[in-house]
Input
Amino acid sequence: MRISFILLLTLLTVAPVSGVVVIEAEIVRYFDGRESPDALTVTIDDDRVRLDNRQTADEQTTMFFFPARGEKPDRLVMINHKKETFVEIDEATIQQLSDQLEAMMKQFQARLADVDPDQRAAVEEMLAPRLKALEEGAEPVEKKVRDTKAEEVISGFPTRLFEVHQEEEHLRDVWVTPWKEVENGGEIQSALSALGGFFTRTFDRLNQSFAGLPTIDIRDNPFADLEKMNGFPVRTHQFEEGDTKVATTFHSVTTLPEPPADLWVIPEGYARQELSGR
Output
């Protein structure tokens, strides 16, 4: 399972923003020879971040991020408007999920002991690297960020192209503009830093639990390499097996004097769900 780069957006701690910053973008997903465009809006109000993803009139999701304040920890709220449900996630929730995943892995290993010896040997050989990672702790796979020096003007922003590689795989291309070229760029960078840190801690913790499971791969933490680029990612192309799967382009950054009254309100009547889906 890859964690999509579109969730990081600009995610690069916290300073007040002059007004409410609204960033508009388009996301295009490619599959089966077809293109599926989405609209994405990132809203930053002081140190809080809201993401609205609109695939169709029916398929809309919203995410709130509330950074830690006092004794209150970082908190993420994910809203599904079609299902009229929401999920709240904090670090305690992630720890609970991590514990559940580790228990699942132990069950998997116990069941493997009852499998036919020849089949068990084949499975163990296939999973050997991940089983070792589970025992020793999952180590992050080194990624390399390469500045190609290639320049292009995109959405009115001067950008430079960076490539991100992991082992032999070309993960993505990112066209970055310096923060000074973006309205309220410094404030945006600071406000989004807390969100990037939350996801980084989450990925690191879940990597420890997912290690050893045959169908899970969240080694590619897209937040980890952004600071090396030191700028606002205007356009991103995410690749799978050499083909572009997701293209994200930011079109505008504007500032509103006041936030809408319902900016941080979960719609009335929406039902809370647990992270596990139960």
Q: What stands out?
A: The two ends are 21 Å apart (CA to CA). Residues 85 and 271 are 5 Å apart (CA to CA). Helices lie at 91-112, 117-136, 185-210, 226-229.
